[in-house]
Amino acid sequence: MAAESGNDSQLEIAHVLFTDIVGYSKLPIDRQSELLRQLNQIVRGTEQFRAAETVGKLVRLPTGDGMALAFFTSPDAPVRCALEIAQALKSHPELKLRMGVDSGPVDQVPDVNDRSNVAGAGINMARRVMDCGDAGHILLSKRVAGDLGQYTKWQPRLHDLGEIEVKHGVRISLVNFVAGDVGNRSSPPSSSAQSSSNASRRGGAGMG
Fold first, then answer.
1. 134-160: pLDDT as tens digits
2. 3-state SS string over 32-47?
């Protein structure tokens, strides 16, 4: 009990947008720096970023090949931010980005430079969701899609991809977010592979 009372960290629910630049590691270093500069400029220019930062409800995490944004505002904030980013990327076809969104518990902790950082399931799952995508994808966890699906305006933009197995045998339910010409309508590679595998197993069982 004494150890617990000595820990003044507070568990919160964050709405997380995780992004990375597809093919980043294969690029020359100067090209990597240029694309990151462009991405930072685009993200900082979005209305959702500015609004959350102004009221102190945003934590930014650089990840080397992209970034994570933890919003402590509304559940749709990271999705709206992803929409703004995707719209801006139309003017930057050289910047191939994939994005993943989840809402979940996080713990705010200072990093080695004593700047605000977050850790926890919300961040980890947002990354797993993003990792399933390809360039142009805006993928949502089932939890986020469920929240958005309560509102008529979001419903036509949500396309269920079913359950997908990721690292360490973890299974997650994914939803593809597409709004007009924003997003990638194609099924993510991991989703297609999973569907083929499931179909093969069903076919094998039927032959038995």
1. 999 999 999 999 999 999 999 999 999
2. HHHHHHHHHHHHHCCH
The DSSP result for 118-179, as a single string, is EESHHHHHHHHHHHT--TT-EEEEHHHHHHHTTSTTTGGGEEEEEEEE-GGG-EEEEEEE-B
Q: Tell me the pLDDT tens digit for each residue of 72-111.
A: 999 999 999 999 999 999 999 999 999 999 999 999 887 7
Domains and CATH numbers, the chain: 10-207 (3.30.70.1230)
Furthest CA-CA distance within the chain: 62
Residue 101 near residue 131, CB atoms below 8 Å: no
Read off the tokens for 61.
């995490």
pTM, to two decimals: 0.86
Predicted local confidence at residue 163, as pLDDT: 92
What letter does residue 75 receive in the DSSP assignment?
A: T
Q: In angstroms, what CA-CA distances link 200 with 121, 174, 207?
A: 32, 21, 11
Buried b (16+ CB within 10 A) or exposed e, 185-196: eebbebbeebee
CA 41, CA 52: separation in Å to the nearest integer? 16
Under 8 Å between Cβ of 100 and 66: no
